[in-house]
């Protein structure tokens, strides 16, 4: 019975797109109301209706008032459960969507924020093969996390989501479709192996001295050195003064990641190699710049700079 209902539902989505809002995108926020909430009996609800019919026929045939009263009470309860299932969705609003970062082939995490003016129980949200159950508090925002599979880099349109509930008795299923006009940016997949990037800034011309708090070495005294830096104990064993040197070389590598240096590769291979170089630079905490056709990103480091570079790679044609 359940498979039959799902088959009928899929047929209705294909044949009646206006009724089921099939492939219809909407801007946020999206609020559910009575014109877009659908209710059908569940398999258990159909079996329960058959049982009530048999009980009604038997009660009338044998003129059993107690059985007739019980049948009417059960029928009223089932009708009330349909109203409760409808109210579980009525007024629920999807206010915003936030997406995480993921490379192609890995699932991206989505965070959906639902606003509700009253308490709601046993609501389910389906996105592809992912499904999550949640409840909302009165006059509060509830954040739901789902995962969306990815296969290619670039902008990925968010598919429609189904929100439904069979609360409280499971006799009826109320559902609605959410198809937000929202896309997530999927980063390119780095290549597995290959040559390392050229880092011309690693030579001595790009080395500079920095003053730290730890002693680096002892050196001969030079005119102008402060007296507090003189190593008196070490100088007593020598015939000249020694000074504590707190300056030590610090390398500030500047990796220059350039699209034009990969002329022997096609576009996707270049993107995969640059993505791997970005991962290596980020892992080594290096400063790096990125040159792309029509887009040049100055040198920098850190998670925000890394995300900016990966976003630029993901949006290349």
TrEMBL record:
<protein>
    <submittedName>
        <fullName>DUF58 domain-containing protein</fullName>
    </submittedName>
</protein>
<dbReference type="Pfam" id="PF01882">
    <property type="entry name" value="DUF58"/>
</dbReference>
<dbReference type="InterPro" id="IPR002881">
    <property type="entry name" value="DUF58"/>
</dbReference>
<keyword id="KW-0472">Membrane</keyword>
<keyword id="KW-1133">Transmembrane helix</keyword>
<feature type="domain" description="DUF58">
    <location>
        <begin position="218"/>
        <end position="251"/>
    </location>
</feature>
<keyword id="KW-0812">Transmembrane</keyword>
<feature type="transmembrane region" description="Helical">
    <location>
        <begin position="37"/>
        <end position="60"/>
    </location>
</feature>
<feature type="transmembrane region" description="Helical">
    <location>
        <begin position="66"/>
        <end position="86"/>
    </location>
</feature>
């Amino acid at each position: 019975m359940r498979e039959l209902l799902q088959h009928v539902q899929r047929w209705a989505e294909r044949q009646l797109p206006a009724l089921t809002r099939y492939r219809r995108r909407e801007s946020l926020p999206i609020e559910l109301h009575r014109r877009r909430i659908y209710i059908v009996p569940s398999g258990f609800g159909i079996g329960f209706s058959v049982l009530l019919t048999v009980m009604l026929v038997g009660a009338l045939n044998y003129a059993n008032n107690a059985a007739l009263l019980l049948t009417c009470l059960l029928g009223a309860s089932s009708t009330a459960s349909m109203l409760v299932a409808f109210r579980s969705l009525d007024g629920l609003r999807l206010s915003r969507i936030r997406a995480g970062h993921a490379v192609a082939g890995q699932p991206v995490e989505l965070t959906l924020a639902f606003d509700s003016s009253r308490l709601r129980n046993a609501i389910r949200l389906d996105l592809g093969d992912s499904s999550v159950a949640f409840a909302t508090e009165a006059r509060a925002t509830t954040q739901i996390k789902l995962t969306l599979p990815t296969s290619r880099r670039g902008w990925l349109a968010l598919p429609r989501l189904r929100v439904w509930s069979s609360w409280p008795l499971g006799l009826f299923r109320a559902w609605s479709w959410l198809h937000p006009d929202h896309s997530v940016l999927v980063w390119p997949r780095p290549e597995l192996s290959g040559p390392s990037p050229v880092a011309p800034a690693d030579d001595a011309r790009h080395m500079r001295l920095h003053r730290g708090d730890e002693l680096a070495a002892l050196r001969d005294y030079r005119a102008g050195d402060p007296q507090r830096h003189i190593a008196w104990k070490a100088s007593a064993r020598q015939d000249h003064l020694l000074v504590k040197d707190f300056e030590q070389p610090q390398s500030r590598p500047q990796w220059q990641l350039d699209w034009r240096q990969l002329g022997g590769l096609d576009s996707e291979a270049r993107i995969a190699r640059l993505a791997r170089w970005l991962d290596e630079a980020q892992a080594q905490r290096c400063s790096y710049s990125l040159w792309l056709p029509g887009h040049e990103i100055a040198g920098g480091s850190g998670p925000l700079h890394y995300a900016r570079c990966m976003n630029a790679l993901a949006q290349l044609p």
